[in-house]
Amino acid sequence: MKTSSLITNPGIGIRHVQCVLLFFALLLGFSMRVNISMAIVAMTDSSSDNTFDWSMKIQSVILSSFFWGYVILQVPGGLLADRFGGSILITISIGCNSVISLLLPTAAYYGGWQLVCVCRALQGLTQGFLYPCTHNLISKWVPLEEKSRLSTIIYAGAQLGTAAELMSAGFLAEYWGWPSIFYANGTLGVIWMVLYLLIGAASPQTSRMISEKERLYIQNSLGHVGGHKSFATPWKSLFTSIPFLSLIVVHCGHHWGFWTLMTEMPSYMSQVLGVDIKANGVMSALPYIAMYVLSFPFGFLSDYILAKRWLSATVTRKISNSIGHFGPAIFLIGLAFVPAGNITLAVGLLTMVVGLNAGHYTGYMFVCDFPNKIGYCGHETTKEHINTVV
């Protein structure tokens, strides 16, 4: 029988609680990911106490060390999340990052930059679970009708976390010293982990708090009524697919520029623009605040365009990708021609560069959504394909 006409949207529910938890997971994960970018400015400030005489080469090695571990578990992380559940691994990810963050100042004092690199590489390794687990949990908890909106809210936590960290780190370093940056992150991460262990769940089926009405609504929307099926990954088809390979190129291009800016921007503010640590934090945060704010109109507009059938899903995603890549490229070229000492123009252009990156959320991040009545992935299918209860 068909149930799509019988099950209505139950309104605010446990799925929104799960989305809030995932939002804060990304917020805290990215806070701990970027804290070294601001902390290293204070850690190497020769005019302050308890600092280190690290050359620019050593600082660059430290800034890059997170990604040594991060790259390892990207694909395996997705496979493990599918097998063991995203909730277990995302708890491990935030938990390990929190503990390491609490230990990092001690590691710096007694182990030098080498042990700091080890700590950052371990944080990167465990954060390799973060995005795969988030994708996995979204696929279990977020109905198709709400996918762009709720997913955008969740992923926007990364940018808000980045902005909040860069802004607060400058004040923490100024008033309580650079170790307080890591202690604050670690403590908040432990609090999140306790909350998630109490109310988080891998899926509606395993949640102890969800109502039957909301569970059926989510399952019906996602085609999970009667159980969620797992399929073998078609590796050969993936790596011979031109659209898939093009997404890899887009993804690599985006993150090359995005992470270069994220790790180096505080150093640029300090050494090129010559701003103090507090102003550095605020100015470095502005671009990520802009990206956070712009992510919402991108998400809602994408859903609206698809719901109204103004454009196909393929065209909508391509437009988002184009805005999120060509826009930053144009403003980044302009940044190279900013006159020396023009802080306002430099920060303004950096804000536009990073802010327009919000287009990638509704671009390649959602380009392979499950098919539904509005034609994700370019397929004009009907919800009957996924709403039939046998």
Distance between the termini: 7 Å
Rg over alpha carbons = 22 Å
Please state the overall shape, judged from the principal axes of the Cα atoms: globular
Number of domains: 1
H/E element string?
HHHHHHHHHHHHHH
Structural class: mainly alpha
CATH topology grouping: Growth Hormone, Chain: A
Return the CATH class.
Answer: Mainly Alpha
Q: Estimate the helix proportion, in percent.
A: over 70%
CATH architecture: Up-down Bundle
Count every helix, treating DSSP H or I runs of 4 or more residues as helices.
14
Mean pLDDT: 83
The unreliable regions are: 1-5, 367-390
Largest sheet: none
Number of beta strands: 0
CATH-level-4 superfamily name: MFS general substrate transporter like domains
Query: What percentage of amino acids are in beta strands?
Result: under 5%
Quick structural overview:
By secondary structure, this protein is mainly α. The chain contains 14 helices and no strands. The N terminus and C terminus are likely disordered.
Question: How is this fold's topology laid out?
Answer:
Blueprint: H1 14-43, H2 56-70, H3 74-84, H4 86-127, H5 130-141, H6 147-176, H7 179-199, H8 212-222, H9 235-239, H10 242-271, H11 277-307, H12 313-335, H13 343-355, H14 384-387
Helix pairs in contact: 1-2, 1-4, 1-5, 1-6, 1-7, 1-10, 2-4, 3-4, 3-5, 4-5, 4-7, 6-11, 10-11, 11-12, 11-13, 12-13
